């Protein structure tokens, strides 16, 4: 059976997967959103034209000012407003470190986790989709589209500069000070061992390997099936393992116990960079499907009918299904058409 929506009323405090020392210091730490008993079903948005999510390194000052303003407004909302940045960040904490459970058969509390399985890619599409809608509504611009961090191309292989101005809302102090621009990102980052061969070319090879050689089938790309009642984390897809996980660790701050913010599930949503990293993960899904052959989404009903809950820009609690996420155009956006240089980087 498909994974059902979490039961918000039994949200776990503190979430079970929170690093233990943190639980000890702050047992009341909570990622749980405000509760609403009214759940509405998702309906596709109506729009005149598709929004184009831009590559973060290519946006102009006006765009930066707009995103900065929208995020400032989001950060200024009261903490208990489900649209606030605090609550947006908590979504990741609740869904990813044992905050949520759902009832299934005779077990009233099956743990829910959206990583390391075929839910990874669609869950994060929905997550940033609502984040984008909320930002747009806060600046009364439904055409606002979030930027993607183009880490798969040479021009994007560093932290995009729009995220590094300490006076802007896009900044986060908890990042590795050694990985500030123009430091080249390491898509194969290992926190314990520096990579002596790091170069633009090795990054392009990593992309080729993960997106083409190791992503021939949906199981390789999306990850293993995860159905109602299953134990969490049956197995991650190639993109999630690398470069996605490596980018999280590379971005986080080594001076923090868990490389916060980006280096741990519970805190990564607190860094605005997270939503740009996931913009590109999302873009990779769209690109992968253009490869043809077996690069096709699962047709398994347990995947298509799996569902999640998100608050929208009107504070409505919306139930979404994986099947409604498979075509980003129906959600109203596409990605800026930039080069995909790794396609020919067969190692
Ligand atoms: Cu939910 Cu980048 O992870």
TrEMBL record:
<keyword id="KW-1015">Disulfide bond</keyword>
<feature type="binding site">
    <location>
        <position position="92"/>
    </location>
    <ligand>
        <name>Cu cation A</name>
    </ligand>
</feature>
<feature type="cross-link" description="2'-(S-cysteinyl)-histidine (Cys-His)">
    <location>
        <begin position="96"/>
        <end position="115"/>
    </location>
</feature>
<feature type="binding site">
    <location>
        <position position="278"/>
    </location>
    <ligand>
        <name>Cu cation B</name>
    </ligand>
</feature>
<keyword id="KW-0560">Oxidoreductase</keyword>
<dbReference type="GO" id="GO:0046148">
    <property type="term" value="P:pigment biosynthetic process"/>
</dbReference>
<protein>
    <recommendedName>
        <fullName>Tyrosinase copper-binding domain-containing protein</fullName>
    </recommendedName>
</protein>
<feature type="domain" description="Tyrosinase copper-binding">
    <location>
        <begin position="271"/>
        <end position="282"/>
    </location>
</feature>
<feature type="disulfide bond">
    <location>
        <begin position="11"/>
        <end position="32"/>
    </location>
</feature>
<feature type="binding site">
    <location>
        <position position="244"/>
    </location>
    <ligand>
        <name>Cu cation B</name>
    </ligand>
</feature>
<keyword id="KW-0479">Metal-binding</keyword>
<feature type="binding site">
    <location>
        <position position="124"/>
    </location>
    <ligand>
        <name>Cu cation A</name>
    </ligand>
</feature>
<keyword id="KW-0186">Copper</keyword>
<feature type="binding site">
    <location>
        <position position="248"/>
    </location>
    <ligand>
        <name>Cu cation B</name>
    </ligand>
</feature>
<dbReference type="GO" id="GO:0046872">
    <property type="term" value="F:metal ion binding"/>
</dbReference>
<feature type="disulfide bond">
    <location>
        <begin position="31"/>
        <end position="93"/>
    </location>
</feature>
<keyword id="KW-0883">Thioether bond</keyword>
<dbReference type="GO" id="GO:0004097">
    <property type="term" value="F:catechol oxidase activity"/>
</dbReference>
<feature type="binding site">
    <location>
        <position position="115"/>
    </location>
    <ligand>
        <name>Cu cation A</name>
    </ligand>
</feature>
<comment type="similarity">
    <text>Belongs to the tyrosinase family.</text>
</comment>
